[in-house]
Amino acid sequence: MSYPESAPARRPAVVLLATAVLLVMAVAALAYTVVDLAVLGRTVDAFRSAARDTSASPQEIDDVVTVLRLSAVLSAVLAAISAVLLAGLALGLLAGRRGVRVATWVVCGLGLLAGCCSVAVLVGERAAPLRLGDGERSTAELLGLIADAYPSWWIPVNAGLSVGQGLGYLVVATLLALPAANTWFGRHRLSAPTVSSAPPGFPPAPYQPSSPYPPR
């Protein structure tokens, strides 16, 4: 006797929307990785060209260039890891894994915290700029050239991406907390019923022990 297989539960719209937002954020992070590494060479060249007119020594210029390259590579690596992580969370949400929903909430919380800290650091730097002594005048001149070395669209795009990522984390966390998402992730999957090998209309065969002797 056979039983029809039950149709899988349909994913609610809030889960699909949260998954779509995560995938968009993953693509944006991956695009940021590519663009960040692509503009690095031009940025370094522009910085070196502008640094020749300062009182900084060649060694000081090389040190700032090293820091500039390391920060760009580190940002690209973190963005690539973020893209992979967000894509993995999206796939886990589509599969209805409750643990992945909890992990997504954790990632969203950390992302919002990191965004708030970045904004706080930026506001603090604008409100109280770094003051160096007279002996560090060349360092102050070099640090002031870094922002101008990037393309004119680079800082606005970064600011827009930061705000967009923060809003994306907030939207995903909210969607996964809605009642429809709770029902989807809290559902109980019933196992398939046991099918008897006896033909219809006949009782199942009696149990036959594998050995005629009872165990001792």
Automatic annotation (TrEMBL):
Biased composition (Pro residues): 200-216
Positions of the UniProt region annotated as Disordered: 195-216
Keywords: Membrane, Transmembrane, Transmembrane helix
Transmembrane annotation, as ranges: 72-95, 102-123, 166-185
Top-level taxonomic group: Bacteria
Stated name of the protein: Uncharacterized protein
Upper lineage: Bacteria, Bacillati, Actinomycetota, Actinomycetes, Micromonosporales
